[in-house]
Every structure is written in structure tokens, then in C-alpha cells.
Amino acid sequence: MATFIAGLGMFFATHAFTSFARGPRGALVAKINEAPYKGLYALLSLAGFVLIVQGWSGASAASLYTPPAFLRHVTYLLTVVAFVLMAAAYLPPGRIAAATKHPMLAGVKIWAFAH
């Protein structure tokens, strides 16, 4: 489990540095140039991903997350609703599109919430 969490931390920290620390990122790029920065970024991201995979495969399923059994049917229902909204995004405008404004976005949000 520690390997899994360390991998998540490394992976997200690498991406958060790029997104939220624009000033330090720019200074680092100016210091070592763009190509070495991208190589270092890719190496750290890959190392974090490898740790995530190793941690996931080494942990038992019960130790990571076990959802309550009664929520299984709620997830199924929300997934069906999400699929209907996704399909409505490609159909001619109708009641679903008018009610949701952006049916694909609503479908993705509902699908993500269900998981």
C-alpha cells in the first residue's frame, strides 16, 4: 500500500508542479532547457506510474477500496443515465439537450460521480 501511495504522490506532484508552479517551472526550464526538462518530467511521471502499478498489484483488493454492496445498483442506474445523455449529444436537439444544455458534459459528470 505504501508503494501505491508513494506512486500516486510522485505522479500527482509532477503534474501539479507543471500546473500550479508556473514561475519555478519557467526558471527550471530556463536553467536546463526545454528538452531535458521534458525528459526529466517524463521520467518522473513514468516512475510514479510504475510505482502505482506495482503498489496496485501488490495490494489486496479489500485493502484499496470496497464499495458498499447496496450502492452497486445506484451505480448501474447512474451509468445508464450517463449513456442516455451521451447518446443525446449526438442526436438532433430535443428535450434532453434543452434540459441539460450540454448533454455530453452532464453524462461525463454523472458517469464520473457514479464511479
Q: With helices defined by DSSP (H or I, 4 residues minimum), what is the helix count?
A: 7
Helix/sheet category: mainly alpha
How many strands in all? 0
Order of helices and strands: HHHHHHH
How would a textbook summarize the main sheet? none
Strand content: under 5%
**Spatial separation of the terminal alpha carbons:** 21 Å
CA-based gyration radius? 20 Å
* Percent in helix: over 70%
Oligomerization category of the chains in this entry: single chain
Name the poorly predicted regions.
Answer: none
Question: What would a concise description of this structure say?
Answer:
The protein is mostly helical. The chain has 7 helices and no strands.
Which key features would you list for this structure?
single chain, 115 residues, mainly alpha, 82% helix, flat
Polypeptide structure, described:
- With about 120 residues, the protein is mainly alpha-helical.
- About 80% of the residues lie in helices and about 0% in strands.
- The protein contains seven helices and no strands.
- α2 crosses α3.
- The model has no long low-confidence stretch (mean pLDDT about 90).
Task: Annotate the secondary structure layout.
Blueprint: H1 2-20, H2 22-32, H3 34-58, H4 61-64, H5 72-88, H6 95-100, H7 103-114
Helix pairs in contact: 1-3, 2-3, 5-7
